[in-house]
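stuck on this fold:
=====
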Amino acid sequence: MDLVPALEEPLKKVLGPATAKVMAEHLGLHSVGDLLHHYPRRYEERGQLTHLADLPMDEHVTVVAQVADARLHTFASAKAPRGKGQRLEVTITDGSGRLQLVFFGNGVHKPHKELLPGTRAMFAGKVSLFNRRLQLAHPAYELLRGDAEEAVETWAGTLIPIYPATAKLESWKIGKALQTVLPSAQEAVDPLPESLRAGRGLVTLPEALLKIHRPHTKADIEDARARLKWDEAFVLQVALARRRHADAQLPAVPRKPAPDGLLSAFDDRLPFTLTDGQQKVSKEIFDDLATDHPMHRLLQGEVGSGKTMVALRAMLAVVDAGGQAAMLAPTEVLAQQHHRSIVEMMGELAEGGMLGGAEHATKVVLLTGSMGTAARKQAMLDLVTGDAGIVIGTHALIEDKVQFHDLGLVVVDEQHRFGVEQRDALRGKGKQPPHLLVMTATPIPRTVAMTVFGDLETSVLDQLPAGRSPIASHVVPAADKPHFLTRAWERVREEVENGHQGYVVCPRIGDEEDDPKKSAKKKSPEDEAEKRPPLAVLDVADQLTKGPLNGLRVEVLHGRMHPDDKDAVMRRFAAGETHVLVATTVIEVGVNVPNATAMVIMDADRFGVSQLHQLRGRVGRGSAAGLCLLVTEMPEASAARQRLNAVASTLDGFELSRIDLEQRREGDVLGQAQSGARTSLRMLTVIEDEEIIAEAREEAAAVVAADPELGDLPGLRTALDALLDDEREQYLEKG
């Protein structure tokens, strides 16, 4: 009978079904190998205590601390009307700070006996705020007894690994499970070529796994980390290098613009000159389009740096050369907007085959899911006959029924919303693979671009076109200083009185049916202390109309409205008929209303840094200065407030994307890029490990060039298969 390789052994056989089920459901760990690659987040020293002053709000934490005192209180409540309710309050200390633990009801008996003053233990729970003090409600705990024998056995001497854990499975239980599977580490197959490993002085994989989970010294941890970071960087870069290699083997039709064609005619009618950045990036794109291999280029730039203009000139060049160009947008609002602005920019050049069209003109058609049948049929006919040189659409473009006469270029807007499959499906519509230009308005640090979009060449637009106005951003602490919020609404009124318009953005729509199951569940004390639900568009719009913005024309916009209604709202706002638009993040990308100067973002702490930067880019698009107010109820010292202060302090998207990455927790390293991928980066931190990523990219390119099939490197093939297993064949840049 075939023996299952040790690392592929399912956890339920090794640890028992209950623990294995929690590991699978909450941590995504299914096999012994998965558990061995679940690395400690940090290490505590047995003799030392955690620094309690730095605990993050709303996160599950594990701390090592000493009990200072414990008091049992009785109280009356609905369940215990005769004053029989019990609450145990335990104060723990690390010598510099204190933290309150609370236990209720029958849960008080065991801790009351065990948590005596002077006792040391590890505590795990979710940090919440109660009466303006940090506390852990009903934490799990493990006493640290003085029994040296037991301690060495379980905790590997003095360094205690603290694992990413969940409420259902504490760090020390994960540690015990790891002790059970650690012997299997000896059978780990090494993905690094031996010459590379030895040349860089890295320890073997079995040794690295042993040292990361049972370090005896801090040097052990360093050795292990150095090695495991290389694995992650190298395997990922090999996957990308193979994709680049395969793409470079494909043929493509070179597309060179005609000297006096559509592109020249378009450039002649531009009322402004292109920025140096736009000219440089356009040249890179035109050079790529002229080769006989498909272009794969990522165009990234600041909000409002004129990416659409660069993309449009590339599309016109391809139409000039006899081909067609398709632009894929993530939402109908955005597709309609792109269509409208491109037709406006082109004027009579977009009226091909129509009376009054210019001699080089072509047709620009829109194709979305909600179009009427007749309009849709006509658009598809224009594509298959070649009458339409440019098509702008949503996912509807990818459908089988859509045929092109000669597709030469695909432009994908907001790449992180589209998976690789969608890109490939559209590319499959060309007679030969079309050229590909991917645009993103979320500036990405160079290393992230190399890690996530490593199969694409990168162009960056970092200057803003002339005529853009500065945007002032401020944090409005609504809980600490309510009068600041009152002032915020006055500012919006002032902008409207000066002839401008404003946006108010909320995290939620507000027409969600409350889930009866959720409300029926008994709430734990922890939930009771939880934050209120995020503010909703419909509620806020109602309050503003009746209150601070009374008398102004306020409308709402969100994703669940009928497309025609959405379009009508946007048209009224663009025409200046609406003063204030209360919206969800549907306005995040591409919405262009130069007269809108003010934006108030409610519950701003619920949005990511890059999302806030994107939203803010919707104001200050004209000649008047923009104002962005970030409203939050989070306390001054919280990480959320620091994040908002960072957004308010700089308009540089590349700087913000670095801050964003540095602040995110592990497992979320590359935003959506790695979501769903069990093998996402665990050890590598993209910002700090720039050198490793760059070196791994070079090594990977050399390995793939010498041996594209990796025939001589079975360990590397195994690691790649684990990274790109069937369901995630190409997870690499899925959004």
